[in-house]
Write a structure and sequence with these properties.
heterodimer, A: mainly alpha, two-stranded antiparallel sheet, 15 helices, 74% helix, globular, disordered N terminus, B: 417 residues, D-Maltodextrin-Binding Protein, domain 2, 2 domains, 11% strand
Amino acid sequence: MAKPMGEGTQTKAGDPAPADGPQRATPAPAKRRHRLSPLKRREALSAYIFLSAPLLLFVVFLGGPLIAVFGISVLEWNLLTQPQFSGLENYKQLLSDPTARAAIQNTFVFAFWSVVLHLGFGLLLALAVNRAMPAALTYFLRTAYFFPLIISWAAVALMWRYILDPNFGFLPYYLSEIGLSIPNVLVSPGWAMPALIFVDFWRTIGLTFIILLAGLQGIPSQLYEAAKVDGAGSLQRFWYVTIPMLSPTLFFALVITFIGAFQIFEPMYIITQGGPGDATRSIVMNIFETGFRSFEMGYASAQAVVVFLVIMVVTLLQIRLSRYWVHYE
Amino acid sequence: MAVACGGSQSESEGPAPKGTKVEGDLTLVYLGTAEQQKAWNALFGLFKEDYPDVNLDANGIPAENWAAFFDTVSTQIAGGKVPDVVQVATEGQRLFASRNLAEPIDEYIERDRDELEEFFDDIHPNLIEWNKRYSSPDENTYYLPGEFNTMCIWYNTKMFREAGVDEPADDWTWEEFSSAAGKLANPGERVFGMYVEPAYFAGIMPWLLTNGASTLNADWTKATVSSPQAVEAFDFARSLVEQGISPEPGGTFDPYSVTAQGQLAMFGGGRWPVIDMRNLNFVDEMKIVPYPQNEEKGSPVGWNAYPIMRESQNKEAAWAFVKFIASEKASEYFARQGGTIVPPRKSVAMSDAFLANAPEGSEKLYEALDYSTPIPSPEEGSVIEREIIDTFTQILAGSVDTEAALQELDQKIQSEL
């Protein structure tokens, strides 16, 4: 498998002399760096100027708050009066707080199903749309699947609350017309979380789909042709060509879906307010409520640190495990 | 941090001598939705007429409830954006005062006693008493009691007429209410007799209080939400949903438009539904009557106050605004224009300014002050309120056992206190 893949990349890169290319390429940039013309230097300067805005935004809105969160997490601070140093008290509190525990558990459940559904159905949709079909239809489907993502969470949440309304919602209504009934999903402890997983899936599947579709479209067709010539059936082609070639894309989708899902907040906050009970309380929502309802900024920050660590550990684990299934080249 | 430092600094200032010119910038934060904005702006226009040298910058925060409003205000304060005056409902008054955010106004009242005498004579003695007992954690006065809301039943006379059901009397009972609501409802056609809102003030409180129960004891120090009377009240509310008299919770039910469409006969409300009813041209078909009682008459009451913030750099202008809001002119204008709250002055609440273009029986909202109970609002109120609403919603939906759920809620509230 390695050979055709190598060929594919080279063809795309368009390098005319692969054999001695590396030898010549190494000293070349060094030479160029010494002879930076005034024009190049000005170009580099403008590049830095352009980069400075996002860099500044990163430092101000991500780097700064990140450091601050670690600092605040060892304080007892109600936002309105002097903060007090409290050491690791906030972290200890986290161990014995059933609400925070429930929130973390819910978030893992949500993230698990989110990853499974997004990657599973995202791949199915991408495969379906990637088949030879009229261009107009491809455009239409691509737009249709992606469209919900550009609707704001607030609007999506409101829309689904209307659809699922137990009194006047059209879903319960039409189901009852054909003799079926669904429970009052948004206030039912057993149904609320699945409902939110579904609503989130509906809204964000387009992103996974587009990423995977782009990945599929980047697989050179000669690989399939070669596999066909070798006598591979469609299942074998999927398993031995599509999946390995798509694995870097799948890996990327896996990482960003998990990170996004673990930070879920909006649907919980707008649709169910974390209820019924704590059935749909996510950890980020819990952080928000701890901070801005109970005014325990230190404890909220400690929870944020834990979320940060969980995401980091899981992502590192994913990167580590990716060695066994992700094929670059 | 800034709050604490600024607080001690400006505390020593005290009021300026009487007659000092009021001028400069003044910022106000209040709870107001986009629809209410126009009415508020008209009121601010009046203030500017009286104080042309004050540059009033009023910011409405369109929050869904008081808890959400405080979230926003607290965050702004923590970020260093401290307004001079904040509108604070009962739900946040003790919190604001005990967090040292509000300036005591005793000296201001003393200085301008002659101007305020007539105000104190005109407001209900209960409001003065409650404002003293509940809104301050210490001996100081932080607020003048402002506009308030109580809860009554709003009913659709057209539906009563068409169903041949007698209109309710002021002393009607739960039983009479159930029987009327049952006749008015038609679950198959999605016609409802009553809307029991999964809410705190406007949802469960009237049912608790008319059954001699409440969520907390009179001092707001102990949870009482699992008492037998409380369980009975929650069960009664659930039974209305179970029989299809009230719609299921958990949706987007809009009682006002549904009422105007002839599909809802009754809902609970204070003054605020009047705006929607006017917009829907349905004021004349509505009437207001006290909540039906099982043990005694009951209604929650919550009132607004406009504390001067300790951090304020222009306390004289802030105090001028506080006095303006309490003035007869503002009260009257607001009653006529805005109408989301009942004016604290009896003379205004019983006048045409308040009663015209409003349902018959609107004066009952003021009369309810005689038998109302201040909405239990300890400092932890924001968290407790969320828990109560959540449990109430689940009980209404029938997904939990009432008694067990209330015992759990009782423990949760107790642990917060």
